[in-house]
Amino acid sequence: MIKKETIKKFQEAVKKDCGKELNFDEAGKILIGIVNYLSVLEKIYCRMKPSSKIKKS
Questions:
Q1: Distance of alpha carbon 20 from its chain centroid, rounded?
Q2: What integer pLDDT is reported at residue 56 of this predicted model?
Q3: What gap in Å lies between CA 39 and CA 30, rounded to an integer?
Q4: Rounded to an integer, what distance in angstroms lies between the CA atom of residue 20 and that of residue 22?
Q5: Which residues of 21-49 are buried (b: 16+ CB within 10 A; e: fewer)?
Q6: Model-level pTM?
Q7: How far apart are the C-alpha atoms of 32 and 40, rounded to whole Å?
Q8: pLDDT at 1
Q9: pLDDT tens digits for 17-53?
Q10: Rg of the chain over CA atoms, in angstroms?
Q11: Are the CB atoms for 7 and 15 separated by under 8 Å?
Q12: 55 φ, ψ (degrees, to nearest 5)
């Protein structure tokens, strides 16, 4: 769950950087989507990294 304070900060950042105002619900949905997307990217990245447990012969 994303805190209300975080959503409000996100709303302010979007308004400042993009000049677009988002209502609280829109901002929350977008922020949740971003967090989910980044989580998927992190999982993919972790699978792509070479395993440090592979012993060199």
A1: 19
A2: 55
A3: 14
A4: 6
A5: ebeeeebbeebeeeeeeeeeeeeeeeeee
A6: 0.71
A7: 12
A8: 81
A9: 999 999 999 999 999 999 999 999 999 998 887 766 5
A10: 18
A11: no
A12: -85, 135
